[in-house]
């Protein structure tokens, strides 16, 4: 049995884009227009944590505002000035700034590009099995499964 070969190194901005722009169900998926993710961790076969090089065009958002139950997240801004929106308010981030989101904190967050230039950042998160995410601004819950995220309404009814 041969082992899959992964690259030694790549130019991050030239890495392939994620094949599915969003895993959210509609009408939420269309709200991710203007977001591009390059899954760098997957490119190297990483399984314990993920790393994405993400670009937000002006007006785009990183995700629906969310909080994870089990997965930690971290972002590091490379270009632009995205606004971090959390339960504690709004913070404009600049290149060189970073933010972290502890699993289970309940502090929902996302980035919004309210500027005139693209925002580019690294997002890093662990891949703890059995995670879930809540979305305080939307009638949505995400439940992690081995096959990927499964979405329900807040009352538990499956999203179709």
Low-confidence stretches are none
Radius of gyration, in angstroms, nearest whole number: 16 Å
Provide the CATH superfamily of the domain at 22-130: Jelly Rolls
Shape: globular
Beginning-to-end CA distance, first to last residue: 39 Å
Helix content: under 10%
Would you spell out the secondary-structure blueprint of this structure?
Blueprint: E1 35-39, H1 40-43, E2 49-56, E3 67-68, E4 73-79, E5 83-86, E6 89-92, E7 98-101, E8 109-112, E9 119-126, E10 132-135, E11 140-145, E12 148-152
Descriptive overview:
This protein has 160 residues and is mostly beta strands. The chain has a domain at 22-130: Jelly Rolls, CATH 2.60.120.10. Helices cover 2% and strands 38% of the residues. It has one helix and twelve strands, in the order βαβββββββββββ. Strands 1-2-9-4-7 form a five-stranded antiparallel β-sheet. A hairpin with a 4-residue loop joins strand 10 and strand 11. The radius of gyration is 16 Å and the shape is globular. The termini are far apart.
């Amino acid at each position: 049995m041969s082992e899959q070969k992964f690259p030694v190194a790549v130019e991050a901005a030239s890495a392939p884009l994620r094949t599915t722009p969003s895993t959210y169900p509609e009408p939420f998926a269309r709200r991710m227009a203007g977001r591009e993710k390059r899954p760098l961790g997957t490119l190297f076969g990483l399984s314990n944590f993920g790393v994405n090089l993400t670009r937000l065009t002006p007006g785009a958002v990183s995700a629906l505002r969310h909080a994870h139950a089990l997965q930690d997240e971290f972002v590091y801004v490379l270009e632009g000035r995205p606004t971090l929106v959390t339960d504690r308010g709004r913070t404009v981030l600049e290149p060189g700034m970073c933010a972290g989101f502890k699993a289970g904190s309940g502090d929902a967050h996302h980035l919004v590009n309210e500027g005139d230039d693209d925002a580019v950042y690294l997002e890093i998160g662990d891949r703890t099995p059995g995670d879930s995410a809540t979305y305080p601004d939307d009638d949505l819950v995400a439940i992690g499964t081995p096959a990927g995220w499964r979405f329900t309404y807040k009352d538990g009814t499956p999203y179709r």
